[in-house]
Amino acid sequence: MESEKSSREKGIYKVTIVGSIVNFLLLVFKFFAGIAGHSAAMLADAVHSLSDFITDIVVIVFVRIAGKPEDKGHDYGHGKYETLATAIIGLLLLCVGFGIFWNGASSIYTFLRGGQLESPGVVALVAALVSIVSKEILYQYTVIQGKKLNSQAVIANAWHHRSDALSSIGTAIGGAILLGDHWRVLDPVAAVVVSFFIMKVSVRLLIPCVDELLEKSLPEDVEKEIEQTVLSFPGVSQPHHLRTRRIGNYYAIELHVRMDGKITLEEAHSTATAIENKLKEMFGKGTHVGIHVEPTK
């Protein structure tokens, strides 16, 4: 199990470090393009890339903690640190989405009142296009690895990469439209549309985190699967007091079962151990299983 944890951590570090290198290079490039191209939108985009770089650090630090084994102060392990990392990334995404919405809406308001909107220069346009392509590739790579490693924090970070690509779309549109001042409003309009998508994704990431931190039970179909598995063992009946929850990447399962009161303690223990091993085979070796045996009434 330790080698499995180590392999998973190494996989998460690898995909996150790749992302952090790309984010750092884009960060420098965007700041340069924003200054050279006189683009406030691109400078804001650079700040977004900075937030991406920060989330990479969050993933590396928290996954390191989450991978620690149980200790005196954490009887159920440190798995929820990864959940906390996902929640932090979700909150950052929500703030980014709202910030993009606010800036876009303010620009639209200025335009509607007859104000003049700036159009990014060619350098800013090139930087935006580079950002869109590179961050979409990084998103695809990160989300595939996140699913492979079964890491919500990595998947959340992948969506942060994609949000950066989406936020560059407004800048690209603003830079590509050279037909006149009246078309420049499409820049903030695109930004507002993108902001709603980013905020929607952030909420989708946050809800499972909140559910887990508030000890929400596993889905009903999973609990039924657990009960059916328990009942598949000869001599075992009436599973009850089933309690389930997530602990980061793993499940915690506690339940009571009934067995013939005349069998030996060794037989009851052997069956309970077999049930525990079967559940761990189904849901992962890190699954916490607690079984209380009662005599059949």
Give an overview in words.
By secondary structure, this protein is mainly alpha-helical. About 70% of the residues lie in helices and about 10% in strands. The chain has helices at about 1-35, 40-65, 80-110, 120-150, 150-175, 185-215, 220-230, 265-285; strands spanning about 235-245, 250-260, 290-295. A 3-stranded mixed β-sheet has the order 1-2-3, covered by helices on one side. The longest helix is centred in the first third of the chain and has 35 residues, at about 1-35. It starts with a helix and ends with a strand. The model has no long low-confidence stretch (mean pLDDT about 80).
Strand residue percentage: 5-15%
> What proportion of the residues is helical, as a percent range?
55-70%
Low-confidence runs (pLDDT<50, min 5 residues)?
none
Largest beta-sheet details: 3 strands, mixed
Contiguous helical run count: 8
Itemize the secondary structure elements and their pairings.
Elements: H1 2-36, H2 40-66, H3 80-112, H4 122-149, H5 152-176, H6 186-213, H7 220-231, E1 237-247, E2 250-259, H8 265-283, E3 288-295
Parallel strand pairs: 2-3
Antiparallel strand pairs: 1-2
Helix pairs in contact: 1-2, 1-4, 2-3, 2-5, 3-5, 3-6, 4-5, 5-6
List keywords for this structure.
297 residues, mainly alpha, three-stranded mixed β-sheet, 8 helices, 3 strands, 10% strand, elongated
